[in-house]
UniProtKB/TrEMBL annotation:
Organism: Rhodinocichla rosea
GO biological process: positive regulation of cell division
Protein known as: Midkine
Top-level taxon: Eukaryota
Family: Belongs to the pleiotrophin family.
Pfam families found in the cross-reference section: PTN_MK_C (PF01091), PTN_MK_N (PF05196)
Length: 136
């Protein structure tokens, strides 16, 4: 009988601890105390130059916030860092222009960014000739 009571007490303690842990996670998510749900976010503005660490300003009614953000230094400046695209494979090399082309379809627009649905990029053709098989 004492073993059952001890076991029941242990189970109750574990359930209480789990409930408290879940409560703490919810409190951390709402630590700013804002009840506003319609936030409008601006672009990520780097602290220096055109990439790296920076901040993004948001407004909702009469509230405003700043969030830390980061713009990768290899991002496509033409599209913006908040527009994510799924790109096709590179097309063949055009003899007339010396460029390869591929298109990308919008996958995700972060922070309500205004993004184009389809984008096209080009790059110079490689001057190297790749051999398909080695050792034959």
């Amino acid at each position: 009988m004492q073993v059952r009571s001890l076991f029941l007490l242990l189970v109750l303690i574990l359930v209480a601890a789990a409930a408290e842990a879940g409560k703490n996670k919810k409190e951390k998510a709402k630590k700013d105390g804002s009840k506003c749900e319609d936030w409008r976010w601006g672009p990520c503005v780097p602290n220096s130059k055109d990439c790296g660490l920076g901040y993004r300003e948001g407004t909702c009614k009469d509230e405003s916030k700043k969030l830390k953000c980061k713009i990768p230094c290899n991002w496509k400046k033409k599209f913006g860092a908040d527009c994510k695209y799924k790109f096709e494979s590179w097309g063949g090399c055009s003899a007339q222009t010396g460029l390869k082309t591929r298109s990308g379809i919008l996958k995700k627009a972060l922070y309500n960014a205004q993004c184009e649905e389809t984008v096209y990029v080009t790059k110079p053709c490689s001057s190297k000739i790749k051999s398909k098989s080695k050792g034959q």
